[in-house]
Write a structure and sequence with these properties.
mainly alpha, elongated
Length: 53
């Protein structure tokens, strides 16, 4: 898991967070990281930077 459930719950404020939300959010974060890493590679860098998002 890439996300921290407690941090997500805290960010949601007084809302409840379902378990399937955590799973989907984790997938989305993973995809973002993968795309950012690919962009860094395409630019000849080994460091993923904010601009890769």
């Amino acid at each position: 898991m890439l996300i921290v459930k407690n941090a997500v719950k805290e960010a949601a404020g007084d809302k409840n967070v379902s378990s399937d939300f955590y799973e989907k959010l984790d997938e989305e974060v993973g995809a973002l990281i993968e795309r950012a890493a690919e962009r860094a590679d395409a630019n000849g860098r080994k460091t993923v930077q904010a601009r890769d998002l």
